[in-house]
Design a protein that fits this description.
Elements (H helix, E strand, L loop, with lengths): L10 H23 L6 H11 L3 H24 L9 H26 L2 E2 L6 E4 L5 E4 L4 E6 L4 E7 L1 E5 L8 E5 L2 E5 L3 E6 L4 E7 L1 E6 L7 E4 L2 E5 L9 E2 L2 H4 L6 E8 H9 L5 E4 L2 H4 L2 E7 L3 H11 L4 E4 L2 E4 L1
Parallel strand pairs: 5-7, 16-19
Antiparallel strand pairs: 1-4, 2-3, 3-6, 4-5, 6-9, 7-8, 8-11, 9-10, 10-13, 11-12, 13-14, 15-17, 18-19
Helix pairs in contact: 1-2, 1-3, 3-8
Length: about 325
Amino acid sequence: MTRTPTRQTEPGQERQQADLALSDAAIDWLVRLHSGQAGKADHEAFAAWRRQSREHELAAREAETIWHGIRLAGDKVQRNARAKLTRRAVLGGVAIGGLAVAGSSLLRQHLFADHSTGAGERATITLPDGSTALLNGDTALNVSFDAAHRHLELLAGQALFQVRPDAGRPFVVAANGGQARAVGTVFDVDIRSQEVVVTVVEGQVDVTAGAGPGTGVLAAADQRVRYGTGRQPFAAEPVDAESETAWRRGKLIFNQRPLGDVVVEIERQRRGRIVITSARLQSLEVTGVFELADPESVLSTLEATLPVKVTRLPFVTILH
């Protein structure tokens, strides 16, 4: 079983972890209640759970707000016309596009990576200096350490790094033409469909990308920096780092995430490629909370709440 890196906690951190535990428990309740298998006893048990304390009630309300966002997102886009595609057109586009993407991913992971995970796998890598890298599913990572440098390259996927301080050897993670530089910190690097997102959990990270001087952006805890291939990074944005890295705790939390990014997340947890047939669908916003171990439930919910049709074929799933 993969374990996330452990560290000692201060009283304030212990309180935060307790709140996160209640939040996760509330989300688990809602997943159960909306599974289609919950009965009257389950609903009564959840009502009793939330009455235990004010903190339980707040966690329940927060989880319900997030869950309700799925329906709100669906209502927002249901007014749009649904694009029509013939089966022949879909199959023709997928035959080349889907297999090319799959082949590229396999090539990067299995021929070039020092460390990699398959779909639905996670792994904790202990690096030569004692730092750790937690790899999400379908992730590939190269490592190059020497007496003067600590350099890593994220070829695909997502990884969270817990860095041991070493002022003489900066810790650098390169991904899609940019890099995140840290001395001692905890941060996440996520290669999404259109951009790379660096999220800082602890400490500070300097993110550079694009050409020309003065392109670095400094991000602190609970901030993220985004950049696209060949483009300079955007300014640091405030985020809830614990929610952004909820995959560590077995959750997928989306807050108005483009469908294109959500598909990337799903692909990391299941075998086979997922192809979206139009740019309009790529940009649909998704809000919700899901179990990391049940990616099929995400697809089912998307089909039920958004103007999206899911067609499952051998090796390829089509969203149209």
